[in-house]
Write a structure and sequence with these properties.
single chain, mainly alpha, about 160 residues, 2 domains
């Protein structure tokens, strides 16, 4: 992955890009990797493999709260997207627990990916997942607005006293 990125541009740009990518690896935690089940840009075989991987873990209703464990990844060994199923674990059931989704509502997990879109329960869950917003994006926008407002009011206050 890194070699491909560095070959396309100079090494400095490649290293900066890798550092930026590594700052976003928290999306690959066990708790969040399940969102990729609904990503149609991923190969069907991979999505199906990830679901099969999830089904190998006992579903615990008591997933302890806490900060997700950040995955340890060597940037030189990133094999995206083929590595995604390595991040599926017991805590990947969290989303389904929080949404109270179990039993028949997970019937789509028992069939090949090509049939998922035909199943109303999958479509409903995909609709719910698609409506989620990435909090960091909202937080970054809010911080930017606050900073701009602070700078504007500071400048206005200073200029009104002159």
């Amino acid at each position: 992955f890194k070699d491909k990125l560095v070959k396309k541009k100079d090494e400095t740009v490649g290293n900066v890009a890798i550092k930026c990518i590594c700052n976003h690896l928290w999306y690959l935690t066990e708790e969040l990797i399940v969102f990729s089940f609904f990503d149609e840009s991923l190969p069907n075989a991979l999505r199906e493999s990830m679901v099969k991987q999830l089904l190998t873990f006992n579903r615990s209703k008591d997933i302890p709260p806490g900060k997700p464990k950040f995955p340890l990844i060597n940037p030189d060994e990133i094999d995206y997207p083929n590595q995604l199923n390595l991040f599926v674990g017991a805590k990947s059931w969290l989303l389904f627990n929080l949404l109270n989704i179990d039993g028949e509502m997970l019937d789509w997990m028992q069939v090949p990916v090509v049939y998922w879109e035909k199943m109303s329960r999958y479509r409903k869950l995909k609709e719910i997942v698609s409506a989620f917003e990435v909090v960091t994006d909202c937080a970054v926008r809010a911080i930017k607005m606050i900073t701009d407002f602070k700078d504007a009011t500071t400048n206005t206050t200073r200029s009104s006293f002159r």
